[in-house]
Write a structure and sequence with these properties.
With 225 residues, this protein is mainly α. The chain has one domain (3-214). Helix content is 63%, strand content 8%. It contains nine helices and six strands, in the order ααββαααββαβαααβ. The chain has helices spanning 3-15, 21-41, 64-67, 69-87, 90-110, 132-153, 159-181, 188-195, 200-209, and strands spanning 45-48, 58-62, 115-116, 123-124, 154-156, 212-214. Strands 1-2 form a two-stranded antiparallel ribbon. Strand 3 and strand 4 form a beta hairpin. Helix 2 (21-41) runs antiparallel to helix 8. The longest helix has 23 residues, at 159-181. The radius of gyration is 17 Å and the shape is globular. The protein starts with a helix and ends in an 11-residue tail after the last strand.
């Protein structure tokens, strides 16, 4: 999925309102944030291949460290522990860990069988991407519901909290439409460098979330990180 991962970040705010949206968004996207780095290092591999699935031209050859079930579980535990050490917010640590692992679950639903259970292990995937209209419908519905959850969980403290949030949402939607309908990247290296720009999204989310308030607090919504 693409904006489905962002939807998880938005919705998770209700479960852990004192956690920063930037952290929640970064956790839900984490596998895809690390992935382009490993592509550039030659550790994992992808190929531009039109028709690999009906929805995307990316053929995922191997990505055992970022997208295997075993490594996703391990990463979710490590990130949850690090977050708990940094904040002592137990609920937030649990939710952050769930966000990290949710990435594999959503990818398992959408990808063809190319997700390894463990490095060099058997590969699985339900293949929702072979049904583009269903894929778009599911992701759009997830995204819309998650936005409503976040909007109703937090309130803007100023114009940045409102304008920054809606600009972020519009940007994500525009990128999704472009990726779904535009031409594939010219080559794998260009894809990897472009994917690194996704690191800006958790920072953007962190920024406008600082200007929003959880209704149960009298201070910024990310007071505990």
């Amino acid at each position: 999925m693409f904006i489905g991962h962002n939807a998880i970040g938005f919705a998770a705010k209700k479960a852990a309102p004192r956690a920063s949206l930037g952290v929640l968004m970064g956790a839900a996207m984490l596998a895809d944030l690390i992935w382009p780095i490993l592509l550039l290092l030659g550790v994992e591999h992808v190929r531009i291949h039109r028709g690999d699935t009906a929805f995307t031209s990316l053929q995922f050859i191997d990505y055992p460290w970022t997208h295997s079930l075993a490594m996703s579980l391990a990463l979710s535990v490590v990130v949850a522990i690090v977050y708990w050490i940094a904040t002592r917010y137990a609920r937030g640590a649990f939710v952050v860990g769930v966000c990290v692992f949710s990435h594999w679950v959503l990818d398992w639903i959408t990808h063809r069988p190319d997700l390894p259970l463990y490095p060099r292990g058997p590969k699985v995937g339900l293949g929702l991407w072979n049904h583009p209209l269903v894929t778009i419908g599911v992701e759009a519905a997830m995204f819309a519901v998650a936005i409503l959850i976040y909007r109703d969980t937090t309130k803007p403290r100023d114009r940045i909290g409102s304008i920054g949030m809606w600009a972020f949402i519009i940007f994500l939607a525009a990128v999704y439409v472009f990726n779904a309908s535009g031409s594939p990247p010219p080559n794998e290296r260009a894809l990897a460098w472009g994917a690194l720009a996704a690191w800006l999204l958790p920072l953007w989310a962190w920024w406008f979330d600082r200007h929003r308030m959880w209704d149960g607090l009298s201070s910024p919504s990310n007071m505990t990180g």
